[in-house]
Design a protein that fits this description.
The structure is a homodimer. Chain A has about 375 residues and is of the alpha/beta class. Chain A is built from 15 helices and 16 strands.
């Protein structure tokens, strides 16, 4: 992995991240394909939406897909027919958010699979092993994501467990795949400082801010990002996990973040919320019933080039999977286009103006 | 509408059907897009599958879409972004199969909408009006589809009502759109003879065999098709409604049928049943879990070119809409390719050999 910063604009940076499966321009938004696919979208859809990188979840792929890939000597990329970079999340977040009956020890977590009820043990070593088997371009350490709200004492215990697991993750990486550390510490600056400093000693290939977008007020998250993004190593990629709305992204870019992922474009798209430069459109609104205009007449995405708001609303009402797909395509394109405009604005010193536009469009109309 | 028979092979014919939105080679299989979309598939998917014609249901489009099209002076084709021919079914079949509380009179049918419970009155005149508003390339008369089994007396009453409605349908066509008659009469040859002869007097643009694939034994349906397909006017398109499996199609082609529609490729595809030249594959079978080969290594469809059986099975297990879509694409392509091979075999006098292959592949392994 190589990371090169091309241009700075205050704390914001545009750069190039070279990975095993290709180069990615930063700031980058990774589209989420939990199970190895962005729901309903094929590789061509994603390429047409200018997606440069996908995020997949080791948690959802560890029982079958990772073994298939390993046994048959192929990477996840080949399995899912996607030849561009993939970042894999380690599964820590999913273990704590999706599983019942989790039993935590220093060694790892025992939980019931929400798919089939099987008892599964997941450790830092196993999470890394799965990610290596998948041939991930960027692997994430296995950590515990503290709930919100949580007391200082419990957050400290959780953060220290995550640090222990960070060491185990690092030591168990028998591959040359890049591995990112994840700063935890909940909503407490002093705990995040400790987490960050210990992770810096472990010398990861990149650093993420984790444990955010877990229900805390926006202002609290923004304060933490504003404070901690600039403290992450300057010459390594900085990744804000699970964020977010367009205004959250552009604010974080201004603090120096390079990488993002979020379910919003796809999940909200499937539910009829569509992003435009003038804010969001809810396709389920009755006023679009007879509206033969596209979602955004200036948008060159496949959906806007071929389908009207009226048709999308009709398909959505009929529960046709094509509605979810076409609306996801529009939103994924919007997010990729947003990142492209953000990168351009850093390079031509107009980030302030773009930030103002984005924040106005989305915060006034949200 | 123009219909030209290019080549005959016993009763089978290959031909060209020229319609307002383009030419279609016959025998043709129309992919079903009930609500104006083939579930989950966009126009590009359909074109890549070599689909030449779609069937849409007036019943499902009459309350909103037909009015939008009429009010804004566009055709259904523009609304759904599909510029090739569309045949619209009149809604008769749906009224009787999907609706509760139907009240039938000589004038038409009153029923509760299964979508919203509204009381709807549908008459031959209204069914034609809706189809004209949609700008259909081929319209179907409004008729009653007799249930199976049904006594001779009740079937006669139903058939006579359908004949009455056929006259009303014909008389209410204020457009130049071609309108097809539908031969009814259930499983009774004498009633079908009466139906056919009366419809011939009305001089429709094409003729369909209706009231089949309603639960009767295959042999009974085959006998009726074998007997009645050749009696439909030679120089007009002959359409067998709601059929069927590959072996049913090729048998009907041998009897002289030119047009088909059926939910099998899409519905079965969504449920993991995939067609190949060697019979069907059920992707949910555990034996495909590690199978990195495509559904059919000789198939050039998008799905087979890019995804393995293992990946399709994984996506299907995860309930990702992409699974349903990719499997529909394969089956739609298979059906279009089947029709293409049927047409070629008529033209080069090898229909007997192809018929034998198809019947063996599907009847032995069903």
């Amino acid at each position: 992995m190589k990371f090169r910063i091309k241009k700075k604009c205050h704390n914001a940076r545009s750069g190039l991240l070279e990975l095993q499966h290709g180069s990615v321009r930063t700031p980058v938004f990774m589209t989420i394909g939990t199970y190895g696919a962005v729901r309903g979208l094929c590789k061509n859809d994603l390429e047409n939406c200018k997606t440069e990188m996908m995020l997949c979840n080791a948690y959802h792929l560890m029982n079958n897909v990772a073994n298939i890939c390993f046994d048959q000597s192929i990477s996840l990329h080949e399995y899912i027919s996607w030849d561009k970079p993939i970042l894999t999340d380690s599964g820590g977040y999913q273990v704590f958010s999706l599983s019942s009956l989790t039993k935590i020890s220093e060694e790892g977590v025992t939980f019931k699979s929400p798919q089939n009820g099987d008892t599964i043990f997941l450790s830092p070593e196993k999470a890394i092993d799965v990610q290596i088997k998948l041939g991930s371009d960027i692997m994430m350490i296995f950590d515990e994501c503290a709930k919100y709200p949580l007391s200082w004492e419990l957050t400290r215990t959780s953060m220290e467990l995550s640090l222990h697991w960070a060491r185990l993750s690092k030591n168990s990486n028998y591959s040359s795949n890049p591995l990112f550390g994840i700063v935890q510490g909940g909503m407490y600056d002093d705990l995040r400082e400790i987490s960050l400093n210990e992770l810096l000693n472990l010398n990861f290939d990149g650093y993420a801010l984790g444990g955010l977008s877990v229900g805390e007020p926006n202002e609290l998250r923004e304060d933490i990002v504003t404070n901690f993004a600039p403290k992450l190593p300057f010459d390594k990629p900085r990744y804000l996990m699970g964020v977010g709305k367009p205004q959250d992204i552009i604010r974080a870019v201004n603090s120096g973040i390079d990488m993002f992922d979020c379910v919003i474009p796809t999940r909200n798209g499937r539910n009829g919320q569509l992003f435009t430069n003038n804010g969001t459109v809810n396709i389920r609104n009755k006023k679009y019933e007879n509206d033969l205009e596209p979602i955004d007449s200036g948008c060159p995405c496949f959906t806007c080039k071929n389908y009207s708001k009226s048709m999308l609303r009709h398909l959505d009402k009929c529960n046709d999977a094509l509605a979810a797909r076409l609306m996801s395509i529009h939103n994924v394109y919007f997010y990729q286009d947003l990142m492209s405009r953000i990168r351009a604005s850093i390079e031509n010193d107009s980030l302030d103006a773009l930030s103002k536009d984005i924040i106005e469009a989305f915060e006034e109309k949200k």
